[in-house]
Design goal:
By secondary structure, this protein is α+β, with helices and mostly antiparallel strands. It is built from 1 helix and 7 strands; from the N terminus they run βββββαββ. Strands 1, 2, 3, 4 and 5 form a 5-stranded antiparallel beta sheet that branches. The protein has a two-stranded antiparallel sheet with strand order 6-7. A hairpin with an 8-residue loop joins strand 6 and strand 7. The radius of gyration is 16 Å and the shape is globular. The mean pLDDT is 85.
Length: 104
């Protein structure tokens, strides 16, 4: 599942776009709006279709690959802040993987 929740600058409305099993769902207005303008992307079960025989990396290395890719994206978009959390971790609220503030 990939969920994109976004509230444009200057708008009070929040919009949601879902992708399930690679299929785009129609955009709809969120029941609960974002408190401020911006976009949140949520990915669930990112590696669920990876064959067991190919799962050699292990959880820490999977997160390291994700962290590196998010860092690369942050270099391309310095005006955007990025935060990645592992919501499946045992820590309440998930564990912080990486937080990259926008460049000023």
């Amino acid at each position: 599942l990939l969920e994109i929740v976004s509230r444009p600058q200057g708008s009070s409305r929040t919009w949601v776009k879902l992708f399930r099993n690679g299929q785009a769902q129609p955009v709809y207005e969120a029941e609960t709006g974002r408190p401020s303008p911006g976009t949140t992307v949520t990915v669930c079960n990112l590696f669920y279709q990876m064959a067991v025989r190919r799962r050699r990396l292990g959880r820490p290395l999977e997160w390291e690959q994700i962290r590196r890719r998010v860092q690369a994206l942050s270099l391309l978009h310095p005006g955007v802040s990025f935060t990645v959390r592992d919501e499946a971790s045992a820590t309440a609220g998930g564990s912080l993987v990486i937080r990259l503030p926008k460049a000023s």
